[in-house]
Amino acid sequence: MSNNLLARDNRTRTGMLVFAVGMFLGTFPAIALSCPFCVAVKPTLSQQRASADIVVFGELIETHEREQVFRVHQVIKGKQRIGNAEQLAVPAEVARGIGALVVLFATVSKDSTIGDARWSTVTMNETSLGYFIRSPSDRAPAKARLAYYARFLQHRDPLIAEDAYLEFGHAPFAEAVQVADHLPSEKLRAWITDPNVPQERKSFFALALGFPRTEDVHAENAAFLRKIILTPASDFRAGFAGVIGGYLLVAGEPGLELIEEHILTNPDAAEGDLRHVANALRSYYEFDRTVPPQRLAQSVRLLLTRPSLAARAIVDLGRWGDWGALSEVVALYDPAMRPPVALRRAIVGYLSACPLEEAEAALEKLRQGDPRGVAEAERFFQATGGGKS
Prior knowledge:
53% of the residues lie in helices and 10% in strands. By secondary structure, the protein is of the alpha+beta class. It has two domains: 10-39 and 209-383, no CATH class; 45-128, CATH 2.40.50.120. A five-stranded antiparallel sheet has the order 3-2-1-4-5. Helix 1 (10-27) packs antiparallel against helix 16, helix 1 packs across helix 18 (371-383) and helix 14 (310-320) runs parallel beside helix 16. The longest helix has 25 residues, at 240-264.
C-alpha cells in the first residue's frame, strides 16, 4: 500500500475515525465548526432571544434585596405567557439604578407558570435596544444576518460591538466568507493595529483579510499580514493564529513557505508563535484546501522536533492519515525514558490507527520496551471509544 496522505482503503478510514474519537476528542479540544480563531464564550443576544420563551423590554422601578421590579414597556416575545402584565418581579441579579432600561429573558418549562421562570437580564440603552429589536431572526438567511451584524463591528456602544463580534464568532466559516464585501479591508487593518480594540477580536479581523477580494486588495492584505508575521516577537501575540490563517488564505503555498522559514524552522521562534501556527494549520486544514493536505502535513511534521508541540502534531498527522511520518513518530518514543502522557498516547494512537504493517511491528516493539506505558495508552483509547478495528 502507498504511504500517500490520502489513502482511501476502509481500514485507513476506520483507523482515522478511531484516532479522531479516541485521541483528538479525548485529549485536545475539538475544532469548532464556527469561526476557527474567534473567542465566543457566551451566547449572542439573538441566541438568547431564540432560546427564551419570554423577552420583555422593561424599566427598573423598584429594587429590593432579593428582587427587582420592572415596568413592562414592550413585550418582544411571549405575549401569551404574560398577558397584559404591566410589571414583572424577577430575582435580583446585579445592582442597577432606578430607571435602568433592561431586556429580560425568561425560560418556562412546559408545565410551569411564569412564577417558575428562569430569568436573565441585559442592561441596554435606546441605541442598543434598537439594534437588538431590529436584529434578524436566527432563521433568516446567513448572508443577510451577518451583513446586518457586520455594520456594527467596533460600534461605539460596547454591548453592540461585542454582540456583533460574537455573531461572527458563532457563525460557520463558510457563512462568514459570504459577507466579505461587508467587511472592508481598510477598517479591518485599522482595527488590527488599534491598541484599543480587544485583542480577542483581532484574530477574526486578521482572518477576514484573507476572504475573497479583488486582486489589488488581496495584494495589500497579503503585504499587511506578512509584515505582522515578520515582525519579531518574544512573547505571546494575542490573535496571531488569525494572522497566520488569513495569510494562508490570501497567499497560499508561498505563504506557507514563509511561515516555515520564519517560524517553524527558526530555532529562536517564540513559543507563542509556534502554538499559534499549530492552531492555524489545524484549522486551515478544516476550512480551506487551497494548500494541498499533503503540503500542510509537511509543515506539521516540522513541529515534531518541538517537545511542547510534538503530541498535537502527531494527533493532526494521524487525523489526516499522513502515515509517511511513521518513522519520525516512532523515534520520539524512548521506552527507557517513558515519554510524557500526552506524547505517549499520541504515538500509540497514531500507530494504532496506521494501516501499515510497520506500524503494528513498531507498536509491538514499544509494548515490549514499555509494557505499562503502552498498556495505559491503549486503555485510554478503549475508554474513549478507540481501539484498533
